[in-house]
Amino acid sequence: MKTTVDLSLRRLARFGSLAASLALAVGCSSSLRQVDLYKSGRDTVSLQYRTQNGREAPQGYSHPGTLTEGQVDRILAAVGVEEYSLFAWRNRGPLFTDDERATLAPWIAHALRKATADQWVRFSVSGRKKGLVLTTPQLSDGICFVKDGKFNLVLGNINFEALESTDRKAEPYSLDPRDRIEFPHVRLTVLAGAGAAPPPVIPGDRWFGQERRNWLTFNLGAFLSPPTTDSPRPASGDAAERLKRLKDLREQGLITAEEYEKKRLEIVQGL
User: Fold this and answer.
1) 169 occurs within a structural domain
2) C-alpha closest to that of 124 among 89, 169, 164, 91
3) Are residues 138 and 212 in the same domain?
4) Phi/psi at 25 (nearest 5 deg)?
5) Where would you tag: which of 49, 224, 233, 245 has the fewest CB atoms within 10 A of its CB?
6) Residue 105, SS3?
7) Is the same domain home to 117 and 166?
8) Contact criterion met (CB below 8 Å) for 78 and 190
9) pTM, rounded to two decimals
C-alpha cells in the first residue's frame, strides 16, 4: 500500500527530474546575437554570432578578414542572377547595381576586419530594378564569411520584389539563409572570374546535400589573382571618383590615415 509519504516522495522526484531537465535545456540554449554596423533604410550591414551556454558558438572562420573594399567590390560585381521563365533559365544580369556595390563593398570589408572567427557578416540592400514587366523596388539580403581560403556568399532573398501592398513587404530573411534550400525560380551565377562557383553537392550533408542556387564560393587565391594580361589604366574620371570614395571612407573612420595615404598614392601613380 502506498502511503502519503511515498506519494509525496514520488511527486518530489518527478518535480526534481522536470526541474533538472528544464535547467539543462536552459543551460544548453542557443540564441542569435547581432552587432549593427551600418543602417540606412533597408540597407544594413551587421555582424552576427550564435551563443551557446553563454559563449559564442565556434565557427572556425578565417576572421578577422583582410579583404579590401576593391576586392569585395570585385566579388560582388561577379555575382549574376538567372530567372526561370517560359521553361528556360534566362540571364537577368548582375545581382548588385553599381550603387548597391558602392554601399556594400566598404562596409562588408570593414565588417570582415572586425569579425572574430565565430562571427559572420549579414547584409541587406535594396533599389529599384526592372523585372520582367515593370521597374519595382527589390531587396536582396544574406550573409558572407571567409573560410578555408574561400569567400562564401549565401542569399536569403534574391531580388525580392517589394510591391506597394501591405501583404508583400520586403523584409530581410530572418532565419539562417544557409538553411533556405528551395529556390525554384531564381539562382545565382558567376558572371566572370576563375575560381568562383556554387558549392559542390555532397550527399547527406546538411547544407550541400542538393544543388544550392543561393550560395556561391570564391576561391580567393584564384579569383583575386592579378590578371595575366596588361590591363588599361583607369581614365582620369574613374580615378577622381575613386579618390572621392577614398576620402569618404577616411572621413567615416572606415580606414586609417595611413591606409588612406597609401591608397591615394596608388591611385595617383596610376594616372
Assistant:
1) yes
2) 169
3) yes
4) -65, -45
5) 233
6) helix
7) yes
8) yes
9) 0.72
